[in-house]
Amino acid sequence: MSASDLIRIMLVDDHAVVRAGVRRLLEQEARFLVVAEAESGERAYQQFGEHLPDITIIDLSMPGMGGIEAIGRIVARYPTAKLLVLSMHENAAFASQALKAGAKGYLVKNSLAEELVNALECLAKGQTYINANFTKKIAQQFLNDEINPLQQLSTREFEIFRLLAEGTDSNLIASSLNISSKTVANYQTSIKQKLGINNSVELVRLAIRSGLIDS
Amino acid sequence: MSASDLIRIMLVDDHAVVRAGVRRLLEQEARFLVVAEAESGERAYQQFGEHLPDITIIDLSMPGMGGIEAIGRIVARYPTAKLLVLSMHENAAFASQALKAGAKGYLVKNSLAEELVNALECLAKGQTYINANFTKKIAQQFLNDEINPLQQLSTREFEIFRLLAEGTDSNLIASSLNISSKTVANYQTSIKQKLGINNSVELVRLAIRSGLIDS
DNA sequence: ACAAAGTCGGGAGTTTTTCCTAGTGTATGT
DNA sequence: ACATACACTAGGAAAAACTCCCGACTTTGT
């Protein structure tokens, strides 16, 4: 292996344990070299300029400047930067946001070591890498994502969605809107179906994320 | 150093990266030896019996049987087991529930390596260890205990509350905890009653407000 | 040892949710 | 103008979830 094959890597994660873990996994392969670590988005941006790593492995949820913003700043300044997101969130929304911000790969933390190596090599070659069992999830939600899930709802559906998310009793919704509680129940089903959710937990989360209600 | 000083450790975390990270940190110190790893609560319980580690380092949020449940089971069978929680949740509710379930220490994942070593030595000596910058947080929230509704919940109730708030299907909860789905339903009722809420929407919002889950 | 509290689940009834069907009204386009 | 589409409404039937009540057993504390 020639020196040019060496892939210089920076690790960004607020958890020292995770940084150590990735470092350990990478040490198994001689062609990877960790040249820098950062525990925050701010530091990541600084360190990037100092070390100009080939690839940066970055977490999304960090205190202060989050990973997404850090990605945005780094890519803005260094458009050829290769950033691999290593997140614990198995959430398509997170992935698409990260990729939209300029990341070149997305991996969940419980992935195997081989997958990490695989992802790194993809990025090194200039490709984009996304977790295999994740692509379909993203593909599914991608359609809905661009549309903005709540936008699919009809006026009535949206109204009922809002009331449900606020915790309003179905019967109260019915009498407020002067419709049968049976109709409310039916709407509830169609709303969940349209939003692709199975339970009221996801319903609330979606409402909160959309800023419709606050926690 | 004599052989008897060797501290045999088991790691339990669903993220391979985290396990590798802890392992790496522990390898710096010759007196620690990782004798087993597990990626789930179920496996942890099995492995514990096989290896009988001096100390078990365990994560709380794992799919299937959660960490709290695993702690409970291990402590039930092996009352002298020393379990150190290594969680990413900087949340007093989690900590107190974990300790109530029988854990001997609580550490957040972004702690420094020295703190981990420190904690391990405390546990090895039979002491209890809690993160320094965490004790005051716990102390703070301890005062609000009367106010903090989640504190009213029993271990089991809390566990089920968490799973419900995460949107886990009742039947899945039942099978994860090896109890009847009827029991889960009954718990659900008592949880709502204790927390003074009427529907699952409020349940989720409470969980989010408490930092138990994020939106 | 006794009381108090936690865990577990059956019984029985109520409520909610789902899935299907179906009527009405209102656009939209050809 | 007429067909087509879709939103709004709601009933019926069945399934699923929830509530309330109770009893058994275990753990814990005094």
State the name of the first-level CATH class of the largest domain in chain A: Alpha Beta
Describe the strand arrangement of the main beta sheet of chain A, using strand numbers.
2-1-3-4-5-6
Low-confidence stretches of chain A: 142-147
The number of helices of chain A is 10
List the helices and strands and how they pair.
The structure is a homodimer of 215-residue chains.
Chain A lengths: L6 E6 L3 H12 L4 E7 L2 H11 L3 E4 L8 H11 L4 E6 L4 H10 L3 E4 L4 H12 L4 E2 L1 H16 L7 H11 L4 H8 L3 H15 L4 H10 L6
Parallel strand pairs in A: 1-2, 1-3, 3-4, 4-5, 5-6
Chain B binds a DNA duplex (30 and 30 nucleotides) through helix 7 and helix 9.
Short structural description:
Two copies of one chain form a homodimer. By secondary structure, chain A is of the alpha/beta class.
Looking at this protein, list some descriptive labels.
alpha/beta; Arc Repressor Mutant, subunit A; Rossmann fold; 2 domains; 6-stranded parallel sheet; DNA-binding; 215 residues; elongated; 6 strands; 10 helices; homodimer
Verbal overview:
Two copies of one chain form a homodimer. Chain A is built from ten helices and six strands; from the N terminus they run βαβαβαβαβαβααααα. Chain A has 215 residues and is of the alpha/beta class. Chain A folds into two domains: 3-143, 3-Layer(aba) Sandwich (Rossmann fold); 148-209, Orthogonal Bundle (Arc Repressor Mutant, subunit A), CATH 1.10.10. Chain A has a six-stranded parallel sheet, with helices on both faces. Chain A is elongated. The relative contact order of chain A is 0.09. At the A-B interface, α1 and α10 of A face α1 and α10 of B. Chain B binds a DNA duplex (30 and 30 nucleotides) through residues 154-157, 170, 179-183, 185-189, 192-193.
